[in-house]
Amino acid sequence: MSSIHSCEVRVCRWNFVLEDSNNFPRKCTEMTTRRTKPVDTVKNQTPEVHSTRSSGRVRLAPKRLQYSPETREEHPRKKQKAKSQTEKESLTNKLKYEEDVENDDVEHNSDGRGGLSAYELERLENIRQNKAFLSSINLFQATEDLKQLTRPKPSQRGLRPHSSVKEVLPPRKSLRLQKKEAEMLTLPPEPRGTLVYEQSSTIKKPTGPLPMNPINMEEGFQLPAELPELCSEDTKERKMKLDLKTYCSALKSMAIADDGVVKVVKDRIFSAAFHPCSSRLLMAAGDKWGKVGLWNFGADWDDDGVLLFEPHTRPVGCMAFSTAHPTQLLTLSYDGSLRCMDVEKAVFDDVYDIDDDLKTFAFMSHDCSTLLVGNWYGEVAIVDRRTPGNSHKSLHSVDPKTLRCVSVHPLQMQYFAVAESRVVSIYDSRSLKKTKNCAVSQLHGHTKSISSAYFSPCTGNRILTTCMDDHIRIYDTSSVNTECPLLKSIRHDMHTGRWLSKLSAVWDPKKEDCFVVGSMMRPRRVQVFHESGQVLHSFMDSENLNTVLSVTAFHPTKNALLGGNSSGRLHLFSS
DNA sequence: ACAAAATGCGGCC
DNA sequence: TGGCCGCCCTTTTG
Question: Which of A13, A148, A305, A544 has CB 3.0 to 4.6 Å from A256, enough for a Cys bridge?
Fold first, then answer.
């Protein structure tokens, strides 16, 4: 019994907060996870132990704690439910009465008033008025519309939801049946600070090339021959000068195809990219658990053309196909590794590996051999992939605080922009020191942290930023090393909350002055803006687009757009 | 059908 | 600067 007793003691040190400052009941997720300082009022209660898990954590029946019969207080949500229930009932009754009135289905008496008292007549009059009111506000239409709003089932294409094999456990026999004495069990110590998770899931993959074995296919699966062929296709960039009108009509011609929503990775998408080839649409996406999915739209291999790999163990924060060697996809992960998938060699090669959390990277030369890699703490490394070994790492402390994004000037590649907490700084890589670097220019005006900052794709004359202060900004960087004035500031809701990736506005590589960004607006949509702030197009689709697409990217040459959501599904818009 | 859980993170004090 | 607060978004699981 002593172990149970210790359970109670431990449990009583937690105080479950059920209401927020607005007196709204908090979600139970928070109810069961939030712990605050000891509170005397709960100390002497004996909470009901609901269940214990293998982790040794104890779960309570929280409702009993706060809304016990003693307090005679109902759970607020229950109350609300009960209220709406009565509302519903009275409405149904009212409707029934109406029917009765309409059908003249009321008992009549001989006195000409149908034998009804003044009160009942008044009631019938009320019913008539209610009916007139209800039809005037189109209530019945509204209920129909509401029914329509219920979300359709997400696409079941791509990775199958239940592909994991259940572990077969040896048969168990209780100690009592074995006629043995009960063991004295002790609870593990309460975790301190952040929870400690199983090492195995957060440990990095071993260094050295990892073979490209798709984890969604049978063992010994050979990569489709189509893949290296596609990837080595000539992808010479065609810089088209599109006028705005043509561009807009191209946007309007794009839509999600019937089979254009596919589960490409298992978990929430952190990064995604289009392969530059034009004969097919080939996409890659990286998720929260280090998985990388390749999706060849319309391919006939299993899982609707999806191959799933596992080159990392933590979120794949950034990825890009090499424009110089399109058989290569570079993937960077928070686990501190940067790898290069090569479909010709069928491996994920090591590019950079460090005991820090990496955040982002960008190509720093046209041949894609030099990379600019940034970690979370404001340090950048210039990595030359042609130089083997560790000597090619050079860390420069740019800002000791935070780093969210790096972007290299497309023409003058010595200049790069770094989004550092509340300012974007532009540095010259030729004059970088170990510490305390001076920016050649800075972009001011952000009042909260900046999620991303990108040079415009063709000239580098603009920088597009996305900031947590709910604004997208465009700066004029045509003279990088002097002043860079703010051109436009566009309001955009960036409140994605806990379970979604952050939004980022990204340029269309085909169009110097247009960009795309996901949106929180309902119905769900993806918006394309002109740098003037004008919304050129909103992609909406009640059938196929019902979630927030946090990660978006345009195809470098074709009329195609991808959007990734938090369930690992890619959405393909094309014409 | 429904409820609860799910391996943050930026902002602010 | 450490730690608390509040997102209210989506999907999976039981």
Answer: A544
